[in-house]
Amino acid sequence: MWQGKRARAVLFVALRSDMLEWALRKGGRWDAQGSLPLPADGGGMAGVAGALRQLATRWGDGVASSPGEVRVVVADYWLRTATLPWNRALQRDVEAAAYVQAQLAAAGHALEPGDVVRHGDGLPGRPVLAVVYPVALWAALADLQRELGAAVTSVLPCSVLAWTCLPRRGWLQPAMLGVSDGVLAMLLRGAGSELQEVTVRQGGKPMVTILRQRALMREAGAVAAAELPVVDLAPGEPVPAHSGQHVIWPRHPAAAAAPSLYLQLAARHGRGGAAFDAVQPAAAMTPARMLAAGAVLALASLMAGAAWQTSTRAAALEQALAAPAAPSPVAQARRSEAETVRIRHVNHAIRTLNMPIAALLRAMEPPQDLPVSLLNVQVAEAEPATGRGTLRLQAQAADSNDMARYVAYLADRRPLTAAVLTQHEQDDTAPARPYRFTVEVRWQP
Domain limits of the chain? Predict the structure, then answer.
């Protein structure tokens, strides 16, 4: 008799700034739970990796039943975040990666090989939040996955999970949310369901109030709401008097057997899949996709049969033409080395003359609303077979935002096909301290 699909046990892991917490949930109930301290001497990501290894070892000693999957919530303390200005490049995957990389570099977040970057979808004209998961964290989670034999199916920042607690009032309505876990304080800002800015500081609920006041002071004419909604991950910490903080989650005291609020927040969100999730789930195999896959396989079989017939005919034709050709009575004269050099120079001159100089200059010219000056342009020889070429631009911008905007602008101009920021520095010798930077641009006629 069919008993139904057995519920998989889910291991929830919370990487807080000062400890690692874990709890196992199965069949809608919390099973085992525990915590491990992180080094108090600022061990950094090495301390996190050590705690994850210790967790895997404890599991190997039979501390609880084996999980079917692992979901992780990470304190923003361990991540890097930046708010980016919206750009059309964000709507195209390849250009979006270059644009986000340039903006993060301008914000001082140089990416390392293996770093995982996620960013919001963004609304046209609205800021976009980018989150960087360091490669060391990713490697530590990969080791945990291998030791437990359970897939890590979701890795999300605490800020993103907290933002889901905020009631939705409209796509474009600005919102502000405070978060406190007793050690860290966060102020989150966005519009509707879109999280756009994350500010993290040491401190609890008093620091949340300070961050809110600073944010309002930066915006001339901003009107503060009477209350600030707060996600309270440290309910034992008192709310400062006259702070206007209003706790929206949790609404009720936690049960005695429940794990920490960090872990409950992760369980409340459910399965991953948000734009900020470091783990992007694969598409489910629905009946429609199965039908499409069958059609593709059938088409592939037909194509393979046609290719076999074609190759058979080609082999027969090649055999028929295999007889050696009669030698030509006139031997082909060999070119001298000097003639070869002259031909090479002529071909180079022809390719240079064929470059779309006017179109390239128009594409590189900054728009009037973008204060960027071109200082130098270096041209590499175009590829003979494809005609594609590379330009190396040196330019100067008033600030990092203008620099990033210009890189994204180049990527959207034809005949340019891609633009990557390769180097930048701030000129401290000039009074205005402008940014000087180098962009490598690919073009194709």
Answer: 351-443
| In the predicted structure, residue 356 carries a pLDDT above the cut 50 | yes
Biggest CA–CA distance in the chain, Å, is 106
Average pLDDT of the chain, as a whole number:
78
Contacts of 48 (CB under 8 A, 6+ apart): 15, 20, 38, 78, 136, 137, 140
Tokens representing 5 are 């699909």
Give the closest residue to 162 by CA, choosing from 184, 138, 186, 183: 186
CATH 3.30.1360.100 fits 351-443, yes or no: yes
pLDDT in tens, 141-168: 999 998 888 999 999 999 999 998 887 6
Q: CB of 180 within 8 A of CB of 237? A: yes
- Phi first, then psi, for residue 381 (nearest 5°) are -65, 140
Nearest one of 135, 130, 146, 144 to 45, comparing CA atoms: 135
Q: Which helix (H) or strand (E) holds 163?
A: helix 158-163
- Summarize the confidence of residues 404-413 as an average pLDDT: 84
Residue of higher predicted confidence among 226 and 55? 55
The C-alpha atoms of residue 167 and residue 317 are separated, in whole angstroms, by 73
121: how many CB neighbours lie within 10 A of its CB?
11
Q: What pLDDT score was predicted for residue 133?
A: 94
At residue 103, what is the residue type? Q
pTM of the complete model:
0.64
